[in-house]
Design brief:
Layout (H helix, E strand, L loop, with lengths): L1 E3 L8 E4 L2 E11 L7 E8 L5 E7 L3 E4 L2 E12 L2 E6 L5 E5 L15 E7 L2 E6 L3 E9 L12 E6 L4 E5 L7 E5 L4 E5 L1
Antiparallel strand pairs: 1-6, 2-3, 2-6, 3-4, 4-5, 7-8, 7-10, 8-9, 10-11, 12-13, 12-15, 13-14, 15-16
Length: 186
């Protein structure tokens, strides 16, 4: 089904230059002279990268119908990440390149949505927030009361983030998967 810029809304999945994107933000802009333009921020569903693009008003795109199927992450072997379908219990291998944006936030037995386009896997969708364990961090200095002071910490996935000084090793924290930043103690 074809859509044009007047149909844009957050979460709309469209094909732009052969790549699948989801609209994250949009704004119609009408300069003093000439036709209007639609400014957008879009996330590439294959790579996870975000791009800013402008389109002429009335430009048409193919709307993509994505299917989300919940799967449980099991293990990695030879660069393939294996997920188990929650309904059929079938093990599905997914190439590392399709899930690079999610690798910092998934641990064994984590459940996430695998995205399908025309019955082909194109990537995974993380929940907005995940709860992960701190495996290493420096102890906070006693009496250090500088407002908003942070220190580096390594998560169980190997991803490094900045956390408040009061966070200790073996504690759980909540991470925002879109920004990769600490949200709260978990």
């Amino acid at each position: 089904m074809a859509v044009d810029t007047s149909d844009f809304h957050n979460g709309l999945n469209i094909e732009v230059e052969g790549e699948p994107y989801t609209v994250v933000w949009f704004q119609h802009h009408k300069p003093g002279k000439g036709g209007g333009i639609m400014r957008t921020k879009m996330r590439n569903l294959r790579t996870g990268s975000t791009v800013e693009r402008s389109f002429k008003s009335g430009e048409r795109f193919r709307e993509l119908s994505l299917e989300k199927r919940p799967k449980t992450y099991l293990y990695v072997e030879n660069g393939m990440y294996y997920f188990m379908d929650q309904e059929t219990y079938e093990q599905v291998p997914i190439n590392k390149e399709m899930i690079t944006n999610a690798l910092n936030f998934i641990v064994e037995n984590a459940t996430l949505d695998v995205l399908y386009l025309d019955d082909k896997i194109i990537g995974v969708e993380l929940p907005p927030k995940v709860r992960l364990k701190i495996t290493s961090t420096a102890p906070g200095a006693r009496g250090d009361t500088v407002a908003n002071a942070t220190k580096p910490a390594t998560l169980e996935t190997g991803y490094e983030i900045q956390v408040p000084l009061f966070i200790k090793e073996d504690e759980y924290v909540v991470i925002d998967t879109t920004t990769g930043e600490y949200v709260e103690r978990g």
